[in-house]
Specification:
Elements: H1 2-30, H2 37-62
Amino acid sequence: EALIHALQEKLSNREREIDHLQAQLDKLRRMNFGSRSEKVSRRIAQMEADLNRLQKESDTLTGRVYDPAVQRPLRQTRTRKPFPESLPRDEKRLLPAAPCCPNCGGSLSYLGED
């Protein structure tokens, strides 16, 4: 059980490092213009190599098979369960001061409705 816990900890550290490198890589890609673009390009290439190496190591640890055609799933987020239907709903609609948009003069509609 201690071995499992250690491997899970190592895997979560790798995943955090991959996420961190991915965020840095995205930031550098956005900055990849201007007078220092060659330095940034070299840094991007190095980070991409590090990211690929870490992803391969992570895949071998977890037993996942790397297939470039299949995107890696993003980090799973917790989803909240909807409120029970038995709870009362109180829907309020706030009416606009003017019947049309004050900027463009177009017709107004409720959000979430076409």
